[in-house]
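Obj: model holo form, ligand = sodium ion.
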Amino acid sequence: RPTVSLPRLRELAARGEPVAMLTCYDATFAKVLDAAGVDALLVGDSLGNVIQGQPSTLPVSLAHMAYHTECVARAQTAAWLIADLPFGCYEASALQAFDAAATLMRAGARMVKLEGGGALAETVRFLVDRGIPVCAHLGLTPQRVHALGGFRVQGRDEAAADALRADAAAMAAAGATMLVLELVPAALAREITAAHPQMLTIGIGAGAGTAGQVLVLHDLLGLTAGRRPRFVRDFTREPGSSADAPGLPISAAVARYVQDVKAGRFPDERIHAF
Ligand code: KIV
Ligand code: NA
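Output (holo structure tokens):
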């Protein structure tokens, strides 16, 4: 299949076809996800949780991110490849962010993602002006989990919603071409999506009104221990099937995720949204 470029992602969004994104941390899964038609792979710093067994994404280093980005990039996928800038390697200055972003681009990323709004606008502009496509990330931003007081829905009251609107506008004005919205009420995510058609919104726990969806691969495969967040669905299980029914193979589960995102069947706002 043809390589997924930024214009291609924009074309999907323009014709109302949701972008299907998943996290990915190694070459084997990269090939499986690519073959299943996933549009974009995110080497997320969620690898701290699902690969390293850390309690949060805070301990993830730039070297860890570069290593996993190289592993995924070696699969030479058609899918667009995004890598997370990890905590502590981009917040201090635009120069610091550029050095870290360059490391991830050299490792094979085509775009970098960073958490934050207005305070990071100058940094986003700095990267974009130097040829690095940027995805911003707003709402529940896991690198700020301690400041946010836990993993909870963001932008619920009017003041918080206004702050989120302003951060999204700042990111769009700074030239971010993609925006992940995590744990945001569906109506607010829909509104931000409509307000910034040039910035592709990708939702996780943000309802069905964004230009695309992303999930953590291990959540989709039902491998994550403990309480499952409401916005997650285990795609290895048929909806409503009994717990002892045989599960779908990985490639089929991923293909179903792609189909359900494209057809607007996932997320189901009655179950997965706030
Ligand atoms: O690290 C990650 O997996 C992410 C997604 C959940 C958006 O940032
Ligand atoms: Na992340």
